[in-house]
Amino acid sequence: MIKVYRVWWIGFLLLVGINAIHAQKQQEKDKDSTETTGLKEYQTLIKDGSVETGIFNIIKAKKDYYFEIPDTLLGREFLIVNKISKVPLQLNEAGLNKGMEFENKVITFSKDSLLNKVWVRTSVPMVSSPENDAITKSVKNNFSASIIEGFDIVSINTKNPSTVIKVNKVFDGSEKSFNDVFNNTGLGGSAKSSLSFISELKTFPRNIVVKSDLTTSISEGGAAVPLTIGITSNIVLLAKEPMTPRFLDKRLGYFTKKRWYFNDKQHAMLEKELITRWRLEPKDQDVTRYLKGELVVPKKPIVFYIDPATPAKWRSFIKQGVFDWQKAFEKAGFKDAVVALDAPEDDPDFDIDDVRYSVITYAASPKSNAMGPSVVDPRSGEIIEADIIWWHNVMTSLQSWMRIQTGPIDEKSRSNTFADEHMGEAIRFVSSHEVGHTFGLKHNMGSSFAFEVDSLRSKTFTKKMGGTAPSIMDYARYNYVAQPEDGVEAITPKIGVYDKYAIQWGYQWFPDTKTEENFLTALVTEHNDDPLYFYGETQDYHNTIDPRSQSEDLGNDAVLASEYGIKNLKRVIDNALEWTYIEGDTYYKTGKLYMGVIGQWQLYNNHVINNIGGVYLNNTVHGDQKKAYENVAAETQQRAVDYLNDNVFTIPEWLFVNDISEKTFPLKDSPMGPYEYSPYTLARELQYSAFYSLFSDARLLRLSEATMFQNKSEERYSNQALFRTVRNHVFKKTLKNKSLTLFERMAQKNYVDVLIVDINKLFQKTSKKTLEVSTRLQTPTLCNYMVKEDISARNINYTSIKRVSEVTSIKKGELHSLLQLLKKKKNHGDPQTRAHYLDLISRIDQAINN
């Protein structure tokens, strides 16, 4: 027994010794590995610092910050979202404010054990191909990711396999790979490292939030100005399985992401557009009820938080603008799909710059605007988060619009300061419009064309339809058509039938793609011929082809709507001094209102002009029997020219020669203070602008092209009719040998000069911008940040090879006709008129001979 015990004891000691030797060798091996690679021992690293756990553990050691990246997340796709958190006054004045995004990119982290590095690559994930197709090898090689950053591996956590890297350089301004705020905001330059730093890092289960203060300086011919911008960088883990995309039908207006598809069976690459939308799905237990048509609460509703900086009296109106969309989402089968909440005050982790939260951010700024951009997963179009930026001074635009457009019919809209309830309803409208953008909806500039102009004067109709257009995504504004005697009360844009239809098309959930395709095709086909569901794309303001889709117009007849609008503008001018009266105050508010009225008159002029040479652009598909291009009726175009003759080419003296000018000129704010515009100079420049737009090459070429398709059943308006009508009006008194007034001489000079300028441009490379007056005098438009993004990609070339285009002959021929007329009439009229004729003869003669 003793012998057996001794054998056991000797074996035990031997085993312990072997294990000890093995453990010592392992420690020496680990030590040797650390010394060889220069890595810090993980336990030593965390012992000297603090650890915050999350998607990446964050280790902070004195001034150094480290990411601990789990091996399971190497190769996974993340989205970097960079936002502005703080700006100094100089950038605030330039329109850069808290909450604005300036750079997003998809990245992946990969480990290189050989070089002891973690590489960060970025790619544009817009290409797809089947995994087992041969072409996929080529896709990978021809659309590869680019390395934007490399980190030395600092340590390895072997217990929970992960890699540690030091990340200071990409957040403290040393490198621009993760955020390049100065170049992406147009400032240029680099951060000053001694004046830039990381202020905070937080990690959460699916994202990381890093805050930095980055400083630079700019100099524009004077002393350098220091600028420090607060930055919030979010690193968000994207879903392993992207949301099932929904492909655009161009008969609706959604923001999109392009996607290219390759496969072995193709003859050519397939390009599609994915609409941007939230991932709204029924809960698993509600799928059966949902498919039966019952309303269900979505698995994850869309929640907006109200910035705590928002003045308390406006919060309920902003929230209501969000809740108003609930009815639209009910068309898609969801109840309580969109919610607005106050930001939590007792949650230390809540941060309005954190992409886990969609926030309506309130910006203290002189800028008058609002906008609603979204953060989108580019792989699928899924909206991850949205931020509405609400500038404090947006109320100045609302007040100006309501006073000018509805003051004559609504007493509440006449004062210098509106009652809170009245302003609140306007805020509700803007809130709904901007929230609509965060759902993926683009502007629908053609929606307002669905309403008959005279219907907008009907109290019954406007109450029933609930607004000025079938879509709140139009720039329909307020009801300037209704007259005081009409008694119309529903004058504010509302969410309409198009909006509900678009939400249903974008958000109704389907169990499979085949069911989805069949339903959505049938839905569009059902409404394709109903003008209430028409979608009109945003167009270039300087080259509007389809007059149905214009900004800030109302109704289906621009001439009639503008005539009603002018009647109301006359009422505003008659009451401007009274409405803006403040005892002892300057006439600043009067001058601003005066300029606003002139801007509204100019707006009506542009609406009318765009009918001349206008073409209705329809998004057609095989089998719908629609024409892709339809010329505006000749009778409509003739009415438009008559309107211009009566209201523009005959300068309206009620607008430019009135009692207001005895107290103030029209005023427009500038960085140097209010700028005063002489009424005569302003009238001359705006009339010139109208002539220039009317006789633009593209417009005249569209008129010429229309005659190519002339048929007996349809009259086409011609260039000859256009010039004859305008010439006979502008030179009416010349033809009758009468003397001309100052404004009549002005109109003739403008008419002739526009033709001369175009002739002189024939062989010159002259920027069109140098020949145009500033186009918009009214207050800023809402969400004008997305004008470029929103403009239709459907551009039609009407101006190539100008030297041999028809319009050159037309304009030269018109100058020859005018020269003959003026030579015959040069000795008629008073001295000013005769001097005027000699001047025009000299100008035309020089232009033709040159």
UniProtKB/TrEMBL annotation:
| Cited Gene3D superfamilies | Collagenase (Catalytic Domain)
DUF5118 domain location, by residue? 40-87
Q: Provide the GO MF annotations for this entry.
A: metallopeptidase activity
**Alphabetical list of CDD domains matching this protein:** ZnMc_MMP_like_2
List each copy of the DUF5117 domain by range: 99-283
Q: Which InterPro entries match?
A: DUF5117, DUF5118, EcxA_zinc-bd, MetalloPept_cat_dom_sf, Zn_MMP-like_bac
Q: Where is the signal peptide?
A: none
Q: Where is the EcxA zinc-binding domain?
A: 416-736
Q: Which Pfam families match?
A: DUF4953 (PF16313), DUF5117 (PF17148), DUF5118 (PF17162)
Q: What is this protein called?
A: Metalloprotease
